[in-house]
Amino acid sequence: MRRRDFITLLGGAAAGWPLAARAQQSAVVLVAFLTTRSPEESAVHTAAFLRGLEETGYVDRRNMAIEYRWARGQYERLPTLAAELAGLRPAVIVAGGDPSALAAKVATKNIPIVFIIGDDPVRLGLVASLNRPAGNATGVSLITSALGAKRLELLCELVPDAGIIGLLVNPSNPNAEAHALEVQTAAQVLGRRLIVLRASLETEFESNFATLRKEEGRALVVENDPFFDTRRDQLVALAAGRALPVIYHISEFPKAGGLMSYGPSLIDGYHQLGIKTGRVLNGANPGDDPVVRPTRFELVINLKAVKALGLDVPDKLLVAADEVIE
User: Fold this and answer.
1) Strands of 164-169's sheet, edge to edge?
2) What's the pLDDT band for 6 if we cut at 50, 70, 90?
3) Which CATH number fits domain 3-143+264-294: 3.20.20.70, 3.40.50.2300, 3.40.718.10, 3.30.465.10?
4) Contact at 8 Å (CB) between 308 and 242?
5) Facing residues of 60 across strands?
6) Over the stretch 244-280, which tens digit does the pLDDT of each residue have?
């Protein structure tokens, strides 16, 4: 997905800032970066964020310094980390992930916040509306958390005989139960029985997979959650070891060996995050700067995983796929 696949409800991208304005940026500004994730697994996304910032005139270690705080999937650390960053009085706090954005919002009412989240920022209470946030926060909403029902539908097309399907959610996510209810409703429409599995620790994954097997579950939907992103390789390995068809929320999973994914491009989302941060550093008021949302979503299928599971991909899915990994 390219940058044009994202829209703002008002205004335009900041890539067109006048060169003269960029040249005036001589002082080093401090940017605080709070994220639920870990630096190792999100390196490509951080790089995309930095590219977006550079397009608006800000280059790390030249006219900008970034102070990072990585929660590494441990959401309970976020309030402390957010308070630490707010105490540094940065020009802006960048928040990666729904829990990080909420922690930053509690930590400061004055410092601008630019977030990237998977859920609806209005429902989370981060902004008053998408086109007029009205507070000190704006950013990128990937709205991937709202796609659980669609992922279930796609999984049923690939595994039509799966009458019992699992849904993995993180109970530490403030909207986990709401998302589970949405997928549960979709499962009823599709005539499937849904088993909701919950994990906020990596040690719980084994028991989740064991429970699904005991209940004769034939497939699994992994709900969008930054904690699951930090444990991507472990989840993919567990699914492969149990020959379990699984659909994920971002393409990084099938690229790591998982079966399939449906959702927006996380790399493009972080690129947009950098641009939005640059807009704020260049003087944009977060309260007036619309939240960015994706306009298309990617279906990615890993044919090697398909073959290992002994599945047949319907022509309909192959035609619809944005990327097929051989």
Assistant:
1) 193-198, 164-169, 219-222, 246-248, 260-263, 298-302, 323-325
2) low
3) 3.40.50.2300
4) no
5) 64
6) 999 999 999 999 999 999 999 999 999 999 999 999 9
